[in-house]
Write a structure and sequence with these properties.
This protein has no helices and 8 strands. Helix content is about 0%, strand content about 35%.
């Protein structure tokens, strides 16, 4: 996590194949990761996600975000054309030791999941005071 970090964009894709018990589409949400002086901020697009249907787990250094969304947005009428596909969201990230795993925070609002990943004290930039004499 240096100032020389390159920003990478990832093409849209779905998570790697895993065995699922539900026959439902799963999307890999678009994510931005921004480095701040004291933390990384991960923001994921998860339209339809709420606090109740969003789950974040951290296991063996892997942070996984999951959100189950409504089954269908149209409950009345007969569709003439459909481009919207209802589905769930899932994506995983490897978290380094430079992140203080005990202080990770998350919130979801207006279809955006924000996960704050605070840097541990040794990973934060420090200014060393120089004394005379």
């Amino acid at each position: 996590m240096s100032k020389e970090t390159q920003v990478a964009t990832k093409p849209e894709s779905t998570p790697q194949k895993v065995e699922r018990t539900k026959n439902r589409t799963v999307f890999a949400p678009a994510v931005d990761i921004v480095e701040r002086e004291d933390a990384l901020l991960l923001e994921a697009d998860v339209p339809g996600a709420t606090e109740a249907n969003t789950e974040i787990t951290l296991e063996n250094g892997v942070l996984t975000i999951r959100a189950e969304t409504a089954k269908d947005v149209h409950t009345e009428g007969t569709p003439w054309m459909r481009e919207y596909v209802a589905g769930d969201f899932e994506r995983s990230f490897t978290i380094s030791d430079e992140i203080d795993q005990e202080k990770i925070e998350a919130r979801v609002r207006d279809g955006v999941l924000s996960v704050l990943l605070p840097k541990s004290a040794p990973a934060r930039p420090q200014k060393i005071k120089v004394h005379a004499g």
